[in-house]
Amino acid sequence: MLExxxxxxxxxxxxTEYFIYCxxxxxxxxxxxxxEAQKNLEQLALNYGIAxxxxxxxxxxxxxxxxxxxxxxxxxxxxxxxxYLVIKGEANNICLNDYYYVTRFT
Length: 106
Known about the structure:
Number of strands: 6
CATH class: Alpha Beta
Structural class: alpha/beta
InterPro entries: DUF6642
Shape: globular
Pfam family, one: DUF6642
């Protein structure tokens, strides 16, 4: 378990040892709504000094683009301790904008 750290300034957060990449499926990427995932990431930053990158997607194409950018273009990819996907769904499928997509991991 991580020990609780005192609150730190924004400059100190970017120099942390821990990084989280969060990709959340939302109804509309253009809506300016704060989600529970964003609130939780903020608390991790304030309480434990864990930095995060937060992105949203509302289509399967947006999900694919974000994952491709993460894996292929993000030079800090290996530094993320956690890659956190917040997407509705059930076993072996995900749901974006009321469309279900079957996932197959090999």
